[in-house]
Amino acid sequence: MLRISRLVKRYGNGEPVLKDLDLEVPGESVVSIIGASGAGKSTLLRCINRLVEPTSGSIVLNDMELTTLKRDGLRKARRRIGMIFQGFNLVDRLTVMENVQCGRLGYIPYWRAALRRYPAEDIERAFQLMERVGIAHYANKRADELSGGERQRVGVVRALMQDPDILLADEPTASLDPVTSRQIMELLQRLASELHLPVLINIHNVSEAKEFTQRIVGMRFGRIIFDGKPGDLDQDAMDSVYSGTSEDQEAPAAASSTDKVAT
Amino acid sequence: MSSDSTPAATPRQWRKAPFIANPWLRWGLLIGFVIYAAWAITTLPFDWARISQGMERAARIFGGAFPPNFDRGGLLLKGFLESLQIAILATLLGLALSVPIAFMAARNIAALPVYLLGRILIIVARSFHPVIVAILFVKAVGFGPVAGILTLTIYSIGFVAKMLAERIEEIDWGQVEALRSTGTGSFTVLQFGVLPQIMPRQIGLSIYQLDSNLRASAVVGIVGAGGIGSTLMNAFGRYDYDFALAITLVIIAVILVSEAISGRIRKNLW
């Protein structure tokens, strides 16, 4: 269970990117977050695992307050939050197996990581997961030799190796072609139900969001302005998420009034 | 109707803007430079008689140097092997120190005080030419290869740490973020997220530096820091110009070979 309340994130002294945002994600639900670029989707996900420091507010995951954690506590909490990235963010020059083991680096002692002595049960688990997503035969290949879809599968397995309580996927399919993109969405959906994981997915492709997730959250200017089932996302709701807002309508109105003065 | 919308009667003019916009500054600098150059040339004591004498002396030295004398090949080989030792040990020691200093001096991974310390270490290592550093070390630890090793270690830090720090500042930050997001400890993040990315550059720099240290070891030997440079200086001191020429030829040959090898390796690496 993830509960976000009154979350604010402001970079420097500018307009906040997230404004008093509240969101609740009960266990096992797959939620997609849609919204135009700059709406704050990415910042929201990154606040959860503190890759971005929230300015104020609270984020509680399974009864643990994440925003106040310090060094070691934060490190331990991050182990249970898997993240999947738009650019895959694999270590290009390491093998697929080592990239997958990166998901366990938070659990094993420093010397084991330094000597690359991965525990036997982690290796076994890695093979199982890689077989599950169909990349086991690439174990010894370097990550940068794989295609986009294969690399994202490595990214997914790395996140699952963490034995996570929640998965955060930041536009996981934006760098992929349409077919691969659907495959990855399907995979995320199935893994979520198999492993009973809540998953938050930032996504630009609204039709995929409707098809593969049970709940859609629409963001606009740092606020949630739509929250409902895919069936509820009608044209009006789409317009409010992607175009029509009061802040947008003021600008053309102002422009037309100056036009009148000029003519 | 404003005048600028009508087509101009004459063709429009365009000239490249001068490099220095302010005409006073532009002409002032030019005149100042001419005056300084005239003053510098007229006040320096160019003694043409001495220069022509020097040419004669140079001709005598070259005359004495031919043919090159390889009789004392044992001494030459010993000096050369010592240079090689100096170069290899200095490279190893320099690299061992360069890597942590480079990490300290990379703004994207080091905290500000650590970064400043790292930058200061690099600036200090770079600020003096190896010959000056060699003179200091010869004074401090005496004649011989130890002074040479210490000198070239500092020389290596100045170059390798600086170049490596710049490479670290260019890494793909996403890979680091991905590791951080799994709860990996910070030293392990450096090992898994940063090191693989800078490895090709690190290997290339190491080979280049070994090559460079081999060349520099001949130079610092001249001020007494051991190796083939010391052998060369002794040969000059005893007016053994033919032996000196033999040494010089060997240095050139060795440097050509080492440059060819290191160039080959680095080309296959990148």
Question: In terms of topology, how is this protein built?
Answer:
The complex is a heterodimer of chains A (263) and B (270).
Chain A: E1 2-9, E2 18-25, E3 30-34, H1 41-48, E4 56-61, E5 64-65, H2 71-79, E6 81-84, H3 96-101, H4 110-115, H5 120-133, H6 148-161, E7 166-170, H7 178-195, E8 199-202, H8 206-212, E9 215-220, E10 223-228, H9 235-242, H10 246-262
Parallel strand pairs in A: 3-8, 3-9, 6-7, 7-8
Antiparallel strand pairs in A: 1-2, 1-4, 4-5, 9-10
Helix pairs in contact in A: 5-6, 6-7
Chain B: H1 23-43, H2 48-65, H3 73-104, H4 112-127, H5 130-141, H6 145-169, H7 173-181, H8 186-222, H9 228-237, H10 241-269
Helix pairs in contact in B: 2-10, 3-4, 3-6, 3-8, 3-9, 4-6, 5-6, 5-8, 6-8, 7-8, 8-9, 8-10, 9-10
Considering DSSP H and I runs of 4 or more, what fraction of the residues of chain B is helical? over 70%
Count of separate DSSP helical elements of chain B = 10
- The number of domains of chain B is 2
Largest interface comes to: A-B, 33 and 20 residues
Concise description?
The complex is a heterodimer of chains A (263) and B (270). Chain A has helices at residues 41-48, 71-79, 96-101, 110-115, 120-133, 148-161, 178-195, 206-212, 235-242, 246-262; strands at 2-9, 18-25, 30-34, 56-61, 64-65, 81-84, 166-170, 199-202, 215-220, 223-228.
List the defining traits of the structure above.
heterodimer; A: about 260 residues; alpha/beta; 6-stranded mixed sheet; 4-stranded antiparallel sheet; 10 helices; about 40% helix; globular; B: mainly alpha; MetI-like fold; 2 domains; flat
